[in-house]
């Protein structure tokens, strides 16, 4: 690869490249090949939209290790007993059978951007014309002293859904009477800004019924958090006295854990915990790093109009692995970015019209039964970043009917986004 391509950063140049005449669509030539790594909110949506809208003109391959994807969205509702694990599991059969996507269940282990190939753990080497990466997050090693990935069974993160969510739910249910549930909350930026606080609400919902003298302790390195006033109001209303939040002013930044001894040390105060949810600092999924697409922030810089990597015009990055400007890391965001990306990729490979990029996001959180709140915004692509246009947030003191309607809206959203991802 030339120095020129490696240092490719010009937004204008990328936009022009996307709209340039396709190089692989002449009659008689092989179909252009799109390879998608990661079958989550970003990857599954992008694969489906490219396959659906190109009507067979583009060959789409999706690489995803798991046969059943459990959404992190609504995994907190699973912890709270509002959903069962089967309700949040989705498979890839429809993408293969109805959209003609070649779904390969394997890990991508190496990306050769010069040769435009991706090696899989199982051996095959796949070629691409455009690569889309949506590998989600990995954890920053050493972020919480005392914790590493080998401690994930003793102190689950449950920040990738599935068996981790099941384990955490079992541990919450097994807590002894009056025990402490500890949470180590992550620093910014991390996936789903309201996620830890919705989780605490759901844990409190369970404990209130099963173990009302139990306590919840949150050690947080951040001075404030998403929808804070709404959560604090809800915690006071539904779970008065059960939840204690310790921010950086009171030592929430200086935290270590002992997974064997089941203790948490907050600025020298050692607390025994019956269950402990450690959510470490985050970075882009490892394959993005291996592909040389991340910078010192740990995330990938993208061109907002197309979601192309700023270091390689043939690679697009989506979702939590990106630095998406004003957009939070959420499933809704990843899904929205995937549609912009699919449109740009199809335009580049088949000459179809590319529409101006528009993005949106809403994050709903459940505080207690029928008590839902939300925050959301719309965004546009500027040369510099994905920039917020306007936004909204639930208000404190809303009536029960409004909160119930907000929760019901989230149920509709879940059904909509999962069918948008998996067909
Ligand atoms: C507790 C919690 C609650 C949440 N609630 C909400 C919510 O209510 N609303 C909302 O919008 N968002 C929510 N989110 C956030 C949302 O889940 C993520 O933002 C979203 O899943 C990001 O999509 P993604 O495509 O970037 O990554 P993911 O959906 O995580 O998909 C990444 C995929 O890539 C695969 N992968 C990784 N590495 C490789 C590799 N080397 N080779 C092949 N495949 C690979 C993984 O197996 C995975 O399936 C929540 C998150 C959490 C943790």
TrEMBL record:
<feature type="domain" description="FAD/NAD(P)-binding">
    <location>
        <begin position="33"/>
        <end position="146"/>
    </location>
</feature>
<dbReference type="InterPro" id="IPR015323">
    <property type="entry name" value="FlavoCytC_S_DH_flav-bd"/>
</dbReference>
<dbReference type="Pfam" id="PF07992">
    <property type="entry name" value="Pyr_redox_2"/>
</dbReference>
<dbReference type="InterPro" id="IPR052541">
    <property type="entry name" value="SQRD"/>
</dbReference>
<feature type="domain" description="Flavocytochrome c sulphide dehydrogenase flavin-binding">
    <location>
        <begin position="357"/>
        <end position="422"/>
    </location>
</feature>
<keyword id="KW-0285">Flavoprotein</keyword>
<keyword id="KW-0732">Signal</keyword>
<dbReference type="InterPro" id="IPR023753">
    <property type="entry name" value="FAD/NAD-binding_dom"/>
</dbReference>
<dbReference type="GO" id="GO:0050660">
    <property type="term" value="F:flavin adenine dinucleotide binding"/>
</dbReference>
<keyword id="KW-0560">Oxidoreductase</keyword>
<dbReference type="InterPro" id="IPR016156">
    <property type="entry name" value="FAD/NAD-linked_Rdtase_dimer_sf"/>
</dbReference>
<dbReference type="InterPro" id="IPR049386">
    <property type="entry name" value="FCSD_central"/>
</dbReference>
<dbReference type="InterPro" id="IPR037092">
    <property type="entry name" value="FlavoCytC_S_DH_flav-bd_sf"/>
</dbReference>
<dbReference type="Pfam" id="PF21706">
    <property type="entry name" value="FCSD_central"/>
</dbReference>
<dbReference type="Pfam" id="PF09242">
    <property type="entry name" value="FCSD-flav_bind"/>
</dbReference>
<dbReference type="InterPro" id="IPR036188">
    <property type="entry name" value="FAD/NAD-bd_sf"/>
</dbReference>
<dbReference type="InterPro" id="IPR006311">
    <property type="entry name" value="TAT_signal"/>
</dbReference>
<feature type="signal peptide">
    <location>
        <begin position="1"/>
        <end position="26"/>
    </location>
</feature>
<keyword id="KW-0274">FAD</keyword>
<dbReference type="GO" id="GO:0070225">
    <property type="term" value="F:sulfide dehydrogenase activity"/>
</dbReference>
<feature type="domain" description="Sulfide dehydrogenase [flavocytochrome c] flavoprotein chain central">
    <location>
        <begin position="166"/>
        <end position="280"/>
    </location>
</feature>
<protein>
    <submittedName>
        <fullName>Flavocytochrome C</fullName>
        <ecNumber>1.8.2.3</ecNumber>
    </submittedName>
</protein>
